[in-house]
Design a protein that fits this description.
Keywords: Signal
Radius of gyration: 22 Å
Helix content: 25-40%
Shape: globular
Number of domains: 3
Protein name: ABC transporter substrate-binding protein
Structural class: alpha+beta
Pfam family, one: NMT1
CATH class of the largest domain: Alpha Beta
Number of strands: 18
Oligomer: single chain
Strand order of the largest sheet: 2-1-3-10-4-11
Strand content: 15-25%
Number of helices: 19
């Protein structure tokens, strides 16, 4: 999703010859549609990894019945930046990326006279829980204020960088001078954190959850504390959308089918994505599961458009874009057509409250519990038999691994929190409450 290595000069070196949807056999009977996606940015799976594995797009194209043979060229990238570079060069027709890279996509498209349009949404979180700041497991840092003067890795121009900037500003720290920001790709930043050359890492899905699951990190700041929506979306070249509206319609219908599959078969979907990406299925499920951090819906909700407009100022301050005309970038005509009469229902839908879940070994379904205490009771009685256990933060609702959460005992209540800061905020308002270990929480619940 992001990056400064994304300079306009580099973009101009790319030939502006149309390829993608315009690539066809000499007789025009074969059409290649090029889709850029990010397999490991797992909140885009309904327009990328999962969609590809299910084959729904190809089926929709085959059903067009227009006498043409369609071929889909799936191109996997680590970030959104090269997808935008290829789109503005006319080489990718449809791409998916996070909200901040989408704005850069819009700006570069306009700059290079290759306009793009936001045509649907993949995964979103209305509070901002898709981004997390983590530290090493043994770190003594417990709050944002502790980051003053420290080395913090992030990817400039990404939603994770946006979370870092806003969080630091709220903590009274100048994001430009108060920390030493390391502009790194997610994998590089993860290695820097593990090696000790970075004190903290601010990243997007699925890096914080992955490192935490692996025991290589612990949460310092839950992005949902900002209470600002974050999302991922699908962008298409304007000329492609106009030239081949039936193909874009087929893609969006296929995305809707993939979304339905994910909602109806969350464990199977997590296993498919895990197999395709090499990520642990338990980490995929943390974000994309039945009560995961991300909600999937192709509709372009007004709250997300408003958040996109607020994001522009962050990118401008980083000198990554100038003004971006968000209203002209957002084009919901195509997804409205694809979803048909159900579109209004999609717009009005809201995410269900997160619930505690246990994933038993060998099970094809998870078990849901009405409270974290009941989850703990089950976990205590089935230790060694669980692939993973998940609990929602008591104040933000962000799902997290039960054994990695910060637990608070308040009378008979056992309350989980993603990060120390949210736990401490609760303690400040509830005299007598105290932090306990996961082992103590299990013992108290059983």
């Amino acid at each position: 999703m992001r990056h400064k290595a994304f300079a306009a000069a580099a973009l101009l070196l790319l030939p502006l010859t149309a390829c993608g949807g315009n690539a066809a056999a000499g007789d025009g009977s074969t059409v290649t549609v090029t889709v850029g996606y990010q397999s490991k940015t797992i909140n885009t799976v309904t327009a990328g990894t999962l969609l590809r594995s299910l084959g729904y797009f190809e089926k929709q194209l085959n059903a067009l019945g227009d006498g043409k043979t369609y071929k889909v060229d799936w191109q996997d990238y680590a970030t959104g930046a090269p997808i935008t570079a290829q789109m503005t060069a006319g080489k990718i027709d449809i791409g998916s990326m996070g909200d901040f890279p989408l704005l850069i996509n819009a700006a570069r498209g306009k700059q290079l006279n290759q306009p793009t349009r936001l045509v649907s949404v993949t995964g979103y979180n209305l509070r901002g829980g898709l981004n997390t700041i983590v530290t090493s497991p043994g770190s003594k840092l417990t709050s944002l204020e502790d980051l003053s003067g420290k080395k913090v890795s992030t990817s400039v121009g990404s939603a994770a960088d946006g979370t870092l900037v806003r969080a630091l500003q709220r903590a009274g720290i100048d994001p430009d001078r108060g920390i030493e920001k390391l502009n790194q790709q997610p994998a590089v930043g993860a290695s820097a954190l593990v090696a000790g050359s970075a004190d903290a890492l601010s990243q997007f899905v699925a890096w914080p959850g992955l490192l935490t699951f692996q025991g290589k990190a612990k949460a310092l700041y839950d992005g949902a504390q900002l209470n600002l929506p974050t999302f991922h979306g699908v962008t298409a070249r304007e000329d492609f959308a106009k030239e081949r509206p039936a193909v874009l319609d087929a893609f969006l219908k296929a995305q809707a089918e993939a979304t339905d599959y994910l909602d109806e078969h969350p464990v199977a979907a997590a296993e498919k994505v895990a197999k395709a990406t090499g990520l642990p299925a338990e980490v995929v499920y943390l974000y994309n599961g039945a009560h995961g951090i991300s909600t999937f819906d192709p509709a372009i909700k007004p709250q997300l458009v408003s958040a996109l407009k607020e994001d522009v100022s962050v990118l401008k301050s980083a000198k990554l874009t100038g003004d971006v005309d968000v209203d002209s970038f957002v084009d919901d005509r195509y997804v409205k057509k694809a979803l048909g009469a159900d579109y209004a229902k999609h717009l009005a839908s809201t995410p269900a409250p997160a619930a505690s879940e246990a994933w038993p070994k060998g099970a094809t379904k998870t078990l849901s519990f009405k409270s974290p205490s009941r989850l703990l009771d089950y976990a205590a009685r089935h230790q060694g038999d669980l692939r993973a256990a998940y609990v929602p933060d008591a104040t933000t609702g962000t799902l997290w691994f039960a054994d990695k959460a910060v637990w608070v005992a308040d009378g008979d209540q056992l309350l989980p929190f993603v990060a120390p800061a949210t736990a401490q905020a609760y303690l400040a308002d509830h005299g007598g409450a105290r932090v306990i270990t996961y082992a103590q929480a299990l013992e108290r619940a059983s």
